[in-house]
Amino acid sequence: MEFTKNFDVRNGRNLTMLVDFYELTMGNGYLESEAGNKTAYFDMFFRRVPDDGGYCIMAGVQQIIEYLSNLKFSDEDIEYLKSRNIFSEKFLNYLRNFKFCCDVWAVPEGNPVFPNEPLVVVKGPAIQAQFVETMILLTVNHQTLIATKANRICRAAEGRSVMEFGSRRAQGYDGAIYGARAAAIGGCNSTACTIAEQMFGIPAVGTMAHSWIQLFPNEYEAFKAWAEVYPDNCTLLIDTYNVLKSGLPNAIKVFNEVLLPKGYRPKGIRLDSGDITYLSKKCREILDKAGFSDVNIVVSNSLDEFIIRDVLSQGAVIDSFGVGERLITAKSEPVFGGVYKLAAVENEDGTIVPKIKISENEEKITNPGFKKIYRIFDKANDKAIADLITLAEENIDENNPIELFNPVYTWKKKKIKDYYVKELLVKIFDKGKLVYESPDVMEIRKIVQEETEKLWPEVLRFENPHNYYVDLSRKLWDLKEELLHKYSSEYVE
Amino acid sequence: MEFTKNFDVRNGRNLTMLVDFYELTMGNGYLESEAGNKTAYFDMFFRRVPDDGGYCIMAGVQQIIEYLSNLKFSDEDIEYLKSRNIFSEKFLNYLRNFKFCCDVWAVPEGNPVFPNEPLVVVKGPAIQAQFVETMILLTVNHQTLIATKANRICRAAEGRSVMEFGSRRAQGYDGAIYGARAAAIGGCNSTACTIAEQMFGIPAVGTMAHSWIQLFPNEYEAFKAWAEVYPDNCTLLIDTYNVLKSGLPNAIKVFNEVLLPKGYRPKGIRLDSGDITYLSKKCREILDKAGFSDVNIVVSNSLDEFIIRDVLSQGAVIDSFGVGERLITAKSEPVFGGVYKLAAVENEDGTIVPKIKISENEEKITNPGFKKIYRIFDKANDKAIADLITLAEENIDENNPIELFNPVYTWKKKKIKDYYVKELLVKIFDKGKLVYESPDVMEIRKIVQEETEKLWPEVLRFENPHNYYVDLSRKLWDLKEELLHKYSSEYVE
Q: Of A205, A211, A360, A364, which to mutate for an interface test with B (greatest number of B Cβ within 10 Å)?
């Protein structure tokens, strides 16, 4: 398998040591106690959709692939670890010869995902399956957060173009770079982040800052100089001094004096401050009257899905949104709380012993066992009806009806006929060998559009969306109950 | 000058192409219009302290140094830019032979900084001084945000140890790595992020996850195995099943059975869920009675400055806090709104023409001209009285009193005697040559402690802190007024 456009070859960073120190102290401990050779199953999942939304957009699988493909401890890494004087020579040797040998499954990027579904499953020696926790969480938590936020913003824009403009306010360089990637997956059609075009093929866009205008003797001269350099792609920033008294009149003057005589049509004007509802309407009216009804109005300035929905509902006339800080940091809810929990351990005879993490907080109780997820679609309209988490050994026969039931209120049941299913988890590593190829970012963006189309509008709603059903198979539900009863008799008050 | 521990040699990334596309379209335009050779002065500053705090902690200068030292366009970069078909051959050649030649000043890391103060000043050819905008903002915005948040959290902990635990929830890999750096600068004394110890010398710490305990037949066996591997540094996570009925009794049993006979004292117990006020008090009582009054209680679980202050005020008995997602993302306010604005342009005869960015929003009006900042200290107690922004040509004679005045309510005046001053901006690049050496991260951490000591407690307060004075010199104020009157007569309604 080849990595070209997708792969972070430019930077070629080895992020092996980007790991919580406790993964190392546990690793060392596993070897010492011989528990490290046990085969463990870990699930990565989340418990809540940010912003009380109806679903999330899976993202980050390609970067997990790059990370796992590059796992390797350098001599300096070993030297550094040795200097800590807490790791055994046996463990340091293990790391020196580290060869990733786990099986890994993941929900492919771009699919809508829901709370409590395993998004990534890792099976392998406990010492390895544990070690990759930090980077799997960091990668999926970040990109899924931003892809989900971007998807909300693009939905609010109702088909208008949304450009990702956040690099300068991102949380670190990768926040900008992979944030731009995730934003494109979520639906943005371009980015201001140049390196994101180079790395991922997301169209990079940009025109001028206020400083361009300030560097010239006056606004008219600045616009004129711009139009002369970019006659075929001329968008002017018109709010440096005063939009209606100065910016727009100067822009129209330059359109007429510089572009039209050369046979070019102007592309757009951009507003970056002020009351964008009022100004966009006024600008539209004036542009139309001046014969520029084809000139786009581009708007930026601390936008998010709430403001975009609001200004559009007030009749703002906007063709394109530039969205910065509130997208690139997911400002309204900047933490995606994915977790990585032990789900099962394999005995030496190969039998799988399911594990459960109990908690006094019922929502924090995990689903035990080695599992898979089926998405169930209605044959009549291709809409997704529910997701069903089953044990890995279970298969669904599409010819038979399925009975779904609420895992808490089990008397709430539903029988489904005329359906088809899709398995969500796909194997990406087989005993450490990569067996999956990621689509390009702009292809993943299309997957998002196709797959969210299959959700009912009630699930897509911003406010109080319908709770999409994520149910457990009877077998998994029984297993969970059994373990809960067992533990509760031992520990829970 | 050598880069060793401080420098990101491990990754050696060239982030030249991490740039907003408009810096490139402007750069190309400057060359075409001959405006690019003008010498421009840009200021990086912010307008508001996050969380309505009283001050921010400057951070990120070392990474600006690394970025500017590495600025270079590779052949692939040029190829990519050429493929966009909008850049002139002259511009591509300029980039091919790019040599950074600007002067750069910055406030050294660890200093408290305030709104409207230039934190970074860049002077050089407009095309270059403009180009570095994205990365200067991205770097300082991120690290100052996290250092400031960490400083709040550490203040709430009132001298107790605060460990940075956030990697898994950070916004991207650099969010974790440089976030850990900034958190240490702000006051955290350790991190879970292993690579941050390797790169910056911040002590990395960690023990076990719940999965360690689940991988053993029972909690007791898991604790016993741990104590046998780490007898001299044994901290046990006691909330996997039930803190008081299972975790703590098993921990005490293992302390008595495994550690004491070998002559070791246990180090601590860790709580990661539940009501930490109640549980910490109970655990302390039980540990003390069992003869373990020297055993630390470590607490984690969605902490921030507000929760820490709250549980401490309720009498929680905690020695050490592990702080994760709310620190590493600055969850309560995850955007640091630093901006980069043109302050002046040099004419061909060398005279500096100050530039102002006006706005209908008064707070967004910039301070014009090439400037510097004096921090004024009281000789009697070394407390910081005020900061004074002056033109670069102005000097303060400490033998004469200074009159400070409020830049809005100019009748609010204050005459200062018996003071001394410190210039805040330090030159870090001279015509593109690095002339400054950053202290190590743990030294910067000390600077923060020393410099925040010099602020009055009223400025340090969380709620409604005293507004530290940031005043303008008479000369700068006069200049600003003059420009405002000039522009307002032209444009403002």
A: A211
DSSP alpha helix (H) spans, A346-428: none
Q: For residue B491, which residues of chain A lie inside 8 Å, CB to CB?
A: 241-242, 245-246
What chain B holds in terms of domains, given with CATH numbers, is 21-146+334-490 (3.20.140.10), 207-321 (3.20.20.70)
Chain A residues touching B72 at Cβ < 8 A: none
Sheet hosting strand A433-434, strand order edge to edge:
A352-354, A339-346, A39-45, A120-125, A103-106, A426-430, A433-434
Distance in angstroms (rounded) separating the CA atoms of residues A125 and A130: 8
Starting at the edge strand found earlier in the chain, the sheet holding B320-323 runs B190-191, B161-164, B320-323, B296-299, B268-271, B235-237
Distance from CA of A398 to the nearest CA of B (A): 36
**How far is Cα A354 from Cα A347, in angstroms, rounded to an integer?**
10
* Chain A residues closer than 8 Å to B10 by CB: 76
User: Can you state the angle between helices B133-156 and A173-186, rounded to 10 degrees?
Assistant: 100
Nearest-CB residue to B171 (from A24, A142, A246): A142
pLDDT tens per residue, range B306-317: 999 999 999 999
Q: Do B142 and A22 touch (CB under 8 A)?
A: no
- HSE of A464, CA atoms in CB hemisphere, 13 A: 0
Interchain proximity B331–A329, CB inside 8 Å: no
Instruction: List C-alpha distances in Å: B415 to A120, B293, B326, B404.
Output: 65, 54, 42, 6
Per-residue pLDDT of chain A (493 residues; tens, 9 = 90+): 233 333 443 445 789 999 999 999 999 999 988 777 799 999 999 999 999 999 999 999 999 999 999 999 999 999 999 999 999 999 999 999 999 999 999 999 999 999 999 999 999 999 999 999 999 999 999 999 999 999 999 999 999 999 999 999 999 999 999 999 999 999 999 999 999 999 999 999 998 999 999 999 999 999 999 999 999 999 999 999 999 999 999 999 999 999 999 999 999 999 999 999 999 999 999 999 999 999 999 999 889 999 999 999 999 999 999 999 999 999 999 999 999 999 999 988 889 999 998 877 888 899 999 999 999 999 999 999 999 999 999 999 999 999 999 998 999 999 999 999 999 999 999 999 999 999 999 999 999 999 999 999 999 999 999 999 999 999 999 999 999 998 877 765 4
Residue A414, classed as helix, strand or coil, is strand
A314: β partners: none
Taking a C-beta distance cutoff of 8 angstroms, is the pair A200, A162 a contact? no
The reply to whether residue B13 touches residue A13, judged by beta carbons under 8 angstroms, is yes
Q: Pick from B10, B26, B168, B188 the residue to mutate for testing the A interface (most A CBs within 10 Å).
A: B168
**Which of A10, A6, A16, A19 has its CA nearest to residue A138?**
A19
Is the C-alpha dihedral spanning B241, B245, B248, B249 positive or negative?
A: negative
CB atoms closer than 10 angstroms to residue A88: 13
Residues of chain B with pLDDT > 90: what percent? 90
CB contact under 8 A, A170 and B142: yes
Residues of chain B contacting A338 with CB distance shorter than 8 Å = 168
H-run or E-run covering A93: helix A89-96
Number of other CB atoms surrounding residue B8 within 10 Å: 19
Cβ neighbours of B172 in A, within 8 Å: 138, 142, 170-179
Instruction: Give the DSSP H or E segment for A422.
Output: strand A419-423
Residue A382, exposed/middle/buried by CB under 10 A (0-12, 13-18, 19+)?
exposed
Tokens of B471: 């005043």
